[in-house]
Design goal:
CATH topology: Alpha-Beta Plaits
CATH architecture: 2-Layer Sandwich
Low-confidence stretches: none
Structural class: alpha+beta
Order of helices and strands: HEHEEHEEHH
Radius of gyration: 16 Å
Distance between the termini: 31 Å
Largest sheet: 5 strands, antiparallel
């Protein structure tokens, strides 16, 4: 079942509320929110869960330490994880941009970093270029906004990436 716009808007509001709660409960810590970049119209399946847990695994490996807070949710609107660590937010954002750029599934990882004051850091804030489209290599944001690629083409690419990463022979 595809997720409606209303469900996605509610999910975003829920994520923002959870961010505020965690930052208030854990002052001075940097928050990383892990979600999966997939089209809204795509069903949530074991593939999206696999990708979310892989993003979380890689993030925790890069952090090199146990986070102070770790919450994981698998909702109908998708995978969500909240990680809080006592690290500089800019350093964490650079690390997350590296993961998104270098990992074979990185184009599907969404690793948002929020500093202790509640400011969301962007790739450009730490000297990284905008994300590239996994289909054509152009601007991911531009392709998404224009609907440049048919959903079936995106889904096929997500399945191919998943298969190649998790089912290596």
């Amino acid at each position: 079942m595809a997720i409606s716009i209303n469900h996605m808007e509610h999910a975003l509001q829920s994520i923002i509320a959870r961010q505020k709660e965690l930052l208030a409960e854990h002052p001075g810590l940097t928050l990383i929110v892990v979600t999966v970049n997939i089209p809204r119209s795509v069903d949530r399946t074991h593939i999206t869960s696999d990708i979310g847990y892989e993003a979380l695994r890689v993030l925790l490996e890069y952090l090199g330490r146990k986070p102070d807070v770790l919450d994981v949710f698998e909702k109908t609107t998708g995978f969500e994880a909240y990680v809080m660590a006592p690290m500089d937010a800019r350093d964490v954002k650079a690390m997350c941009a590296d993961i998104e750029s270098e990992h074979p599934l990185g184009a599907l990882f969404n690793l948002d970093v929020v500093d202790p004051q509640g400011n969301v850091l962007r790739r450009r804030d730490v000297g990284y270029r905008a994300r590239r489209c996994m289909i054509c290599g152009g601007s991911a944001l531009s392709c998404a906004r224009r609907g440049a690629h048919p959903t079936n083409e995106i889904v096929d690419e997500i399945r191919r990436m998943h298969r190649e990463h998790f089912h290596r022979e």
